Amino acid sequence: MITKITLMLVSFTFAGCAILHHVQVGEVDSKIVRKGEKIEILVTETGVSFKEGTQVAQALTHNKQTKKDLGDAQAILSMFQMGPVTGNHVFSDKFADRVFKLIRRKCPSGRVSGVTSIRETAKYPVVSGEIVKITGYCG
Amino acid sequence: MNKLIIICLMLFSLISCTHSVHNYHVSAERFLGKSKNKKRIKSEAQQAVVFWMADNTNYVNEAFEELQRKCRKGRIVGNNTRFSTSHGFFSWTNKVKMQAYCVR
Fold first, then answer.
1. Nearest 5°: phi and psi at B67?
2. Do residues A28 and A114 touch, judged by C-beta distance below 8 A?
3. Of A28, A35, B35, B39, whose Cβ has the fewest other Cβ atoms within 10 Å?
4. Looking at the 3D structure of chain B, how many domains does it have?
């Protein structure tokens, strides 16, 4: 049991990785890009993988029936979470909307160019960071 | 005990809806400046999908047209677009939300 927990903790420490889903570059005004100040906005939300959560719970139990029940529960749960997924499931889809206000706060002049929109995931076992990152230049 | 776990998970899934944000795009906002005649506008449209059958395939255009309607006599700048999905029981809703400034 202790070995299993130790192995899990080790995997938690080393298994983090970044996954890029989407990147898009907007209009570039070379004057703003050359002379402007670089800005970076990052918003994140915690994502959860119910499948991996079930696998961890199954690894922690020795009872075959409990393992089976956990698998069944996960199958039922997945029926309530159907649809396309980018990264892991999150509990709010509004977390990225903050970017709209943050851009104005970081660049009050309103002259933003060379905007790169990045959607990525910082992946760890069971949980993840669902990230929206915006970089650009403020003139 | 095991039944309790299943019931708890089912209740959890019924009360908590999960989402997925696929893409968020920010357009350049040039020459917005400190104009006093700018107004924040937003539009949202969605597509319901039940058993893999989609009902409204024009929802992105609808969101764009709504945004244009809200700024008939101005210029739309600094457009932010979010594309996400809300998950459900054998069904899901694809959503597009646009936020921008209308400058007159």
1. -65, -40
2. yes
3. A35
4. 1
